[in-house]
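Hey, quick one: can you model this chain's 3D structure?
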Amino acid sequence: MARTTDPERVAQRRETIAVAAAARFAEQGFEATTVADIARAAGMSAASVFYYFPDKRAVFRAVFERDLPLSRSLMDRHAGTAHPARAIVDLVTDLAADARDPHAAGILVELLRQVDRDPELVEVVARTEAVVQEGLVGLITRGIADGTIDAALDPVETATWIRNLVDAVYLGAHPDRDATPALRRTVARYLAPGPNPDTTGNPRESEAK
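Sure thing. Here's the predicted structure for all 209 residues.
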């Protein structure tokens, strides 16, 4: 008789492995981290890790695959808002929420190192970025239409800039320093309608001073 599997249990075990692996990859780097290291951190055998993942790269990808459903849920939560500009500021707060995790900067640096070596990883990251980009573009477009966001801003370029700003928060993250207030102020001021927009695409002069 064929053995049946419990999808919920499989998902939980994969999640346990991915969370444990993220910490090891952040601390030691992808190359120096072994499957045995991941197994010890997850409290299981190396054979168990290989039961749920074909290889170490698949485990690394799983760390970032977790972001896709979370991003979709986040965008869906704000999609119907009556206040697009305010929703964007809340969105960047949510997107940067994990930046104070002690492993945040390390895992992002390792992602940047590995992304050119794994086409499947590129696809994983691209899918999540596309969800966030699309959600931001929609909110920015609506904010421009209702007058709460500067009409001189290009929705696509602005959405990309906001995502890059969130990434910068992670790269400069420190567990003892909360960059969220500065992030919120920067995004809110950039989006706000102003009398002197810089049409070159740079921050307005009034904001740069």
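One thing worth noting: Residues 119-146 form the longest helix (28 residues).
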